[in-house]
């Protein structure tokens, strides 16, 4: 929305180097009738490569004096006063990264910082204060939000610390309206994304890199409103213009801001992730199960600190995909004449282009790439065994399956001794071969012709049963390595200090006893039968199965870590010293 004014107005963009602040600064400079003071917590202005170009709006404005930079610490009112003195308008954006610190620091920056900004504006006679809030101030973790509007109260149970502190800061800004000539309003954008996004897209990428990438979390019918960052900057400027012309309908008010295009949350996420080369999940996983698993992992990591940002990003993405969150922006459309200037599809395209450095470059995970050899085929050796178990030739695989079933019946189900069963089987084989040779003319003719061959020629055609020296060395080396590894494990167990190894050995021995000793025939039959089914299924759904196994392994690993951390550390018993 263009502002019709012959004279340039001076404004301060507090938080001008934040995600939204950068976009707002560029838009103000592009409009052309603003003198922009950029204020942020950094000591000096560090330009990005795109901003360092001679033709960039910020670089040109800095060189002509239409833009300037100043360091400010919102925890100290004096630094704010020095920056905003003589300005008419203050656009205020606090930094979401401040919540990665402790509660006191976050509170002092967001809430106490808002109080300091308000007091500084009143003292410096700033006319208009526009605060960038968030739609999350009316959300909790358990309820959907359908067509939320400005009449909704603040949440009684905020979904995170940042939302709670933003709600307090927003309330202070709105209460300060029309005091000492200061007019205030706030906007609440929903799920802001765009180039430089520090939260939404990194959360989705973190999920895509983790074991959750194989699942659609919750219902794929959940709908959310998203807002491209340039539309947020546009809304801030629209709010300032409306605050100047129609004060009664804007001052002291708050407005929800979206792209006016509610869309399925998973559809939005997949458009982003597929553009960066990640898999499309196809298995649905109930959101309650995911939340239970995340809660379990979080409970086992009671000492979570700021280095566990990955868990926070995954939790944010799960919350986004688990609930419907849509908003009614008719108030913003009516009162501040806001409408999106960048469509959702164009915003997604521009965002994906800016995050190519986070694209998944592994060729095995690029969509549309053809993989000549599957993982399970490579594991099986890419030979006849793989062809049989993966049913490359259905006739041969079916015959092999019948043969394995017959052997299982003959040796396991009939409950006879192994020697007698083997002898009977050999006898049957000899009888069948002899009868087949006598009946088949072709086989009989071959046998008659071969009887005329000399003994030497027969000896040359017979296979030579010998083991090469290289194969024998490899076999002995393998046996020696296994023996050394067993000795190492036994020595570690004897020391009594490695609880994790102890549980692994106990579990392996118990599983061997359960399957191979107590239920050997049944385990053998189930294993042989599944071998003709499991490998075929795994080849078709290897990504999904790997995801399930990865999640189960992570849970078991966390359980073992939790148990071992709470076990007592063994102390060596004191040596007995004979003093006699």
Automatic annotation (TrEMBL):
<feature type="domain" description="Reticulon">
    <location>
        <begin position="385"/>
        <end position="568"/>
    </location>
</feature>
<feature type="transmembrane region" description="Helical">
    <location>
        <begin position="397"/>
        <end position="413"/>
    </location>
</feature>
<feature type="transmembrane region" description="Helical">
    <location>
        <begin position="520"/>
        <end position="538"/>
    </location>
</feature>
<dbReference type="InterPro" id="IPR050177">
    <property type="entry name" value="Lipid_A_modif_metabolic_enz"/>
</dbReference>
<protein>
    <recommendedName>
        <fullName>Reticulon-like protein</fullName>
    </recommendedName>
</protein>
<dbReference type="InterPro" id="IPR002225">
    <property type="entry name" value="3Beta_OHSteriod_DH/Estase"/>
</dbReference>
<keyword id="KW-0812">Transmembrane</keyword>
<keyword id="KW-0472">Membrane</keyword>
<comment type="similarity">
    <text>Belongs to the 3-beta-HSD family.</text>
</comment>
<dbReference type="Pfam" id="PF02453">
    <property type="entry name" value="Reticulon"/>
</dbReference>
<dbReference type="GO" id="GO:0005789">
    <property type="term" value="C:endoplasmic reticulum membrane"/>
</dbReference>
<dbReference type="Pfam" id="PF01073">
    <property type="entry name" value="3Beta_HSD"/>
</dbReference>
<dbReference type="GO" id="GO:0006694">
    <property type="term" value="P:steroid biosynthetic process"/>
</dbReference>
<feature type="transmembrane region" description="Helical">
    <location>
        <begin position="425"/>
        <end position="444"/>
    </location>
</feature>
<dbReference type="InterPro" id="IPR036291">
    <property type="entry name" value="NAD(P)-bd_dom_sf"/>
</dbReference>
<keyword id="KW-0560">Oxidoreductase</keyword>
<dbReference type="InterPro" id="IPR003388">
    <property type="entry name" value="Reticulon"/>
</dbReference>
<dbReference type="GO" id="GO:0016616">
    <property type="term" value="F:oxidoreductase activity, acting on the CH-OH group of donors, NAD or NADP as acceptor"/>
</dbReference>
<keyword id="KW-0256">Endoplasmic reticulum</keyword>
<keyword id="KW-1133">Transmembrane helix</keyword>
């Amino acid at each position: 929305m263009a502002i019709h004014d012959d004279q340039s107005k001076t404004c301060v963009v507090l938080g001008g180097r934040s995600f939204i602040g950068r976009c707002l600064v560029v838009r103000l400079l592009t409009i052309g009738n603003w003198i922009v003071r950029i204020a942020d917590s950094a000591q000096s202005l560090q330009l990005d490569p795109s901003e360092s170009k001679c033709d960039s709006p910020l670089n040109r404005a800095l060189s002509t004096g239409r833009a300037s930079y100043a360091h400010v610490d919102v925890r100290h009112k004096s630094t704010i006063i020095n920056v905003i003195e003589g300005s008419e308008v203050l656009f205020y954006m606090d930094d979401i990264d401040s919540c990665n610190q402790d509660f006191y620091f976050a509170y002092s920056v967001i809430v106490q910082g808002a109080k300091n900004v308000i007091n500084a504006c009143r003292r410096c006679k700033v006319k208009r204060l526009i605060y960038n809030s968030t739609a999350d101030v009316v959300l909790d973790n358990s309820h959907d939000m359908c067509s939320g509007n400005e009449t909704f109260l603040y949440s009684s149970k905020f979904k995170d610390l940042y939302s709670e502190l933003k709600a307090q800061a927003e309330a202070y800004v709105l209460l300060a309206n029309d005091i000492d000539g200061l007019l205030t309003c706030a906007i609440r954008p929903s799920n802001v994304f765009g180039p430089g996004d520090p939260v939404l897209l990194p959360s989705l990428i973190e999920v895509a890199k983790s074991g959750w990438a194989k699942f659609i979390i919750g219902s794929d019918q959940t709908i959310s409103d998203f807002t491209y960052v340039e539309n947020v900057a546009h809304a801030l400027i629209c709010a300032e213009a409306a605050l100047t012309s129609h004060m009664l309908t804007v001052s002291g008010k708050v407005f929800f801001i979206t792209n006016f295009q509610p869309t399925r949350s998973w559809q939005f996420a997949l458009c982003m992730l597929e553009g960066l080369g990640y898999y499309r999940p196809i298995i649905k996983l109930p959101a309650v199960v995911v939340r239970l698993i995340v809660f379990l992992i979080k409970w086992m990591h009671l000492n979570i600190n700021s280095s566990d940002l990955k868990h926070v990003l995954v939790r944010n993405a799960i919350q986004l995909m688990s609930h419907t969150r849509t908003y009614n922006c008719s108030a913003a459309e009516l009162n501040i004449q806001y409408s999106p200037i960048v469509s959702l599809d164009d915003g997604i395209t521009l965002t994906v282009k800016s995050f190519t450095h986070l694209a998944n470059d592994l060729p095995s995970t690029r969509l549309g790439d053809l993989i000549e050899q599957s993982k399970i085929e490579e594991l099986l050796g890419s030979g006849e065994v793989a062809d049989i178990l993966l049913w490359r030739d259905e006739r041969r695989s079916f015959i092999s399956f019948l043969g394995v079933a017959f052997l299982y019946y003959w040796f396991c189900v009939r409950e006879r001794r192994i020697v007698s069963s083997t002898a009977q089987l050999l006898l049957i084989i000899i009888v069948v071969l002899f009868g087949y040779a006598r009946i088949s003319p072709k086989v009989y003719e071959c046998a008659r012709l071969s009887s005329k061959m000399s003994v030497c020629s027969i000896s040359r055609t017979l296979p030579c049963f010998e083991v090469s020296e290289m194969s024998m060395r490899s076999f002995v080396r393998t046996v020696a390595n296994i023996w050394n590894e067993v000795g190492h494990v036994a020595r570690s167990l004897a020391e009594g200090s490695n609880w994790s190894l102890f549980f692994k050995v106990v579990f392996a021995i118990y599983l061997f006893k359960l399957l191979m000793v107590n239920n050997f025939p049944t385990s053998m039959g189930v294993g042989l039968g599944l071998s003709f089914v499991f490998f075929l299924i795994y080849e078709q759904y290897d990504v999904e199965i790997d995801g399930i196994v990865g999640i189960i392994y992570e849970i078991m690993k966390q359980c073992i870590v939790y148990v071992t951390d709470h076990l007592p550390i063994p102390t060596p018993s004191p040596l007995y010293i004979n003093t006699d």
